Amino acid sequence: MSFNPFAPAHKLAAAIRQQKIGSLELLNAYLQRVERFNPALNAIVVLDIDRAKKQARATDRMTLRGESSGPLHGLPMTIKESFDMRGLPSTWGRLDMQHHVPATDADAVKRYRAAGAVIFGKTNVPTMLADWQTFNPVYGTTNNPWDVSRVPGGSSGGSAVAVSAGMCTATLGTDTGGSIRQPASFTGTYGLKPTYGRVSRYGL
After folding, report:
1. 52 Cβ partners below 8 Å, 6+ apart?
2. Are 107 and 200 in contact (CB under 8 A)?
3. Which residues are catalytic?
4. How far apart are CA 158 and CA 144, in angstroms?
5. Nearest to 69 by CA among 2, 7, 23
6. pLDDT in tens, 17-60
7. Roughly how many angstroms between the first and final C-alpha of the chain, as a whole number?
8. pLDDT below 50 — which residues of the chain?
């Protein structure tokens, strides 16, 4: 299967299950795009490559046995920096939280993992998720992939840019007053805000 970084998530997950592409192969392809495009965009600010590759290899072994880890079987994706993920910083862009490293995953992260997703990085946010641009003093500025002199919106700007630039096909953001919907409109991506209360906020 030729790699299309903009293919829908459900099609890529199906391709992994059908052994048209491996989870590790797909992860490496996205990481190559991160290496190529992220320096100018600064969308993905934390990487978890070793753990992601270990999970991808385990997923590929499951595939060979005819087993599935869920609807997102082996799909590489990212999450917004504000979600707790065991062993990785969760700073909300605050200098006083630079060394905050949660010991457990947020509920939403647990659910994505349970669905088979391979989470390989965290995406940038404005400080306290409180702006319609994406800058903070910890990680700096995220740029719009269509024009790096412009903002990508916020607060899920890093997430939107990661998808728009083909560095992942799906990502997890948050939205209270437009924080998914506005960056999606700024970057030419699709964003969904679920009904309030339908998704656990524990670990956010």
Report:
1. 27, 76, 118, 119, 120, 121
2. yes
3. 80, 155, 179
4. 9
5. 23
6. 999 999 999 999 999 999 999 999 999 999 999 999 999 999 99
7. 37
8. none
> Average pLDDT of the chain?
96
pLDDT of residue 1: 58
Structure tokens at 177: 């007053």
- Alpha-carbon distance of 192 to 173, in angstroms, equals 9
Q: How many residues does the chain have?
A: 204
Q: Is the pTM of this model over 0.85?
A: yes
Q: Which residue do the tokens 């993920």 mark?
A: 85
The pLDDT of residue 38 is 98
Residue 24: what residue type? L
Query: DSSP 3-state assignment of 173?
Result: coil
Report H helices in the chain.
9-17, 23-41, 49-64, 107-114, 157-164, 181-187
- C-alpha count within 13 angstroms, C-beta hemisphere, residue 11: 9
- The candidate with the shortest Cα–Cα distance to 196, out of 177, 172, 170, 168, is 177
Give me the sign of the Cα torsion angle 133, 27, 49, 36. negative
pLDDT of res. 2: 73
